[in-house]
Known about the structure:
Elements: H1 7-24, E1 32-35, H2 45-59, H3 67-70, H4 76-84, H5 90-109, H6 119-128, E2 133-136, H7 141-151, E3 159-161, H8 174-183, E4 190-194, H9 197-205, E5 209-213, E6 227-229, H10 237-245
Parallel strand pairs: 1-2, 1-4, 2-3, 4-5, 5-6
Helix pairs in contact: 2-5, 4-5, 5-7
Amino acid sequence: MLIVQSSKGVRDRKAKISNQKSAINKLQPPFGAIFDWDGVIIDSGALHAQSWRRLAAEIGRPIAADSFIRGFGMKSARIIEEIHGWAKEPAEVARLTNRKEALYREIVSQSEIAPLPGVVEWLHLLREAGVPCAVASSTHRLNIDAVLDRIELRQAFREIVSAEDVVHGKPNPEVFLKAAERLGMAANRAVVFEDAHVGIEAGHAAGMKVVAVTTTHSAAQLSTADLVVRRLDELTLAEVVDVLSVR
């Protein structure tokens, strides 16, 4: 599909990008942008909930009350063990975890999925400004890969740190620290984009600033973040630079 912009529209966009670049030039080197996956890049909450229900039906166990909200941002293994109480033995926890993720990928393959509103525009702006981007998520790598190509954003991310790359899940900061290391960025030059409480806590524990997106929680519920937005394309580079400058 060809989209034709007016010459004025092209000029306005170029001017906006130029202004954004001048803002980021205050920082040398540029900051690193580290994104949570579910609830920030895509909204797959309903698909995850469906995969949990299918797994519960398979093993004949009940779903814990409010488990989706309580477990948001956590590794599936921790949800199985601590929230649902389905297993304690490591081998059984691993078996159920792998089955849950396989069910999720089956559901994804049969479902429509797209980036959240504003994601593509924000990632494009970051790329044009030379800001390196990474995904840092408790999601399994196969789950991320199952979606990335379909939404055509694989080239937007220099690095991907997933559940298999870390020992400790959020709120432990390991996943964000590892992402910053892979980007070659000091923690105080990295900005985390999150939508969950455990992610905000992990980002701050890593010594990073956190921008929260109100995909799954209200702005009031995410008030511990350094900045809260409804969607990512509401942001400007200047705002992010200003957040980084506050110590």
